[in-house]
Design goal:
It is a single chain. The radius of gyration is 20 Å and the shape is globular. A hairpin with a 5-residue loop joins strand 1 and strand 2 (about 10). It is an alpha/beta fold. The chain folds into three domains: about 1-60, no CATH class; about 80-205, Trna Endonuclease, Chain: A, domain 1 (3-Layer(aba) Sandwich), CATH 3.40.1350.10; about 210-265, Orthogonal Bundle (DNA polymerase, domain 1). The strands form three sheets. The protein has a five-stranded mixed β-sheet, with helices on both faces. It has helices at about 15-25, 30-40, 50-60, 60-70, 70-75, 80-95, 140-160, 175-180, 195-205, 215-225, 230-235, 235-245, 245-265; strands spanning about 1-5, 10, 45-50, 100-105, 110-120, 125-130, 140, 160-165, 170, 185. The two termini are about 35 Å apart. It is built from 13 helices and ten strands.
Length: about 260
Amino acid sequence: MRVVKRSGETEEFDPAKAINAILRAGLSQEDAERLMEEVRPRLYDGMSTEELYRIIRSRLPSCNASRYSLKKAILLMGPDGHSFETLVGRVFQELGYHVEVRQLLKGHCVTHEVDLVISKGGSKGMVECKYHNAPNYKSSIQEALYTYSRFLDLKDSHGFDAPWLVTNTKFSGDVVQYARCVGMRTICWKCTEEKGLERLVEKANVYPVTVLSLRKNEWRTLLDHDLVLCRDLIERKEEVRRLFPRETADRVIAKAAEFLECVKR
């Protein structure tokens, strides 16, 4: 059978890909295969990947369903890219980098606002974060050219070794080719098996608050006050309690604690 992707393209349904997604949500191999067997009678030729996603998600335990919805959760962090920059910065911190967020740096020609400055082991990089609300959008060659031109203007005065381009969606083929040619480092959604954004978020345990089953206005309030990660709600409880009535704050904190306990297993 074939499935219809969000972009309108069709592809052959691959059960292994669906099972891998379920495994990343925290289920065992046995449970993932059992779930796929339960879902199989509802599959049909020409169904959308979105419908498949909803069917699988509806059969997952609450915590696992949240992990399964990570891509959607990151899409909900908008509309601007401020919270996404914070998320990416925390990923780099967990990978052992010293991170400075949203730095205003004077280049050879002009001044630039750089999303992240990262350093580790004597190397130093500038990171451009490109956040997109549309799941099918592919970061374009213009974004790569823009990032590299800023790097060229800044590298001598600030000692940058390499530019990074990070997005929550995917890159066009031109971006991949150009980045390889000029030595630009890239991170995107499912770029590679081990270095895709989803893998790095999971490895660093820096899940955004939008994975939690909260009201939209509650997400917005948290993000607007730079409470971006589930971990922030535990580590900064008093700030959460200043933002909401006590009952709401306790519920929000409890959901974060429940989710973080689940992802440890």
